[in-house]
Design a protein that fits this description.
This protein is an alpha+beta fold and about 170 residues long. It has one domain. It is built from 3 helices and 7 strands; from the N terminus they run αβββββαββα. It has a 4-stranded antiparallel sheet, covered by helices on one side. A hairpin with a 4-residue loop joins strand 6 and strand 7.
Length: about 170
Amino acid sequence: MSTYIVAAIIIGSVVSICFLLISIHNKHNREAMNKLLKYFSQLGTENDLSFSSQEILRNCILGLDGLQRKIMVVQRVDGSFSSFIIDLREVKNCSVKKIYGTINVGDLKKAKLEQYLEKIVLHFDLNDNSGAEIVFYKHFENHLLEALELEQKAKNWDAILSKMQLPLKNIA
């Protein structure tokens, strides 16, 4: 009977430690996301942007100011923040791109193409022949099962932003 009690105590201890570690991890993620949201809000205010649409990704937030026709992107990279603003009047083209890793001859017979997917990005071709990208899916940050959902989000943004590129009509 005592071996059952010892086993129950050990199992209970292991489960408790696992729950504790998970809760600490979740708290850390919430704090990091709150810092990202605060920085995003602060930067939007500094640039006089009012967001009509927003998307929160794992390490990135993008917001669309429909009136000024600008999109602001804030990313968290290694604990620090980087940001950029895209003026939609300077965008020639917007498209969703899937970037794949190296595929050796014959590998597609054993594995599906999706297993080689490295990134899904919303790519912008700008008037000055430069480009910008917003990463929606990244192989080491997201699970492969998230790829379809994140690709759909990128396509929705592509549709919204493509409409925003059209010149505003003058209302008389």
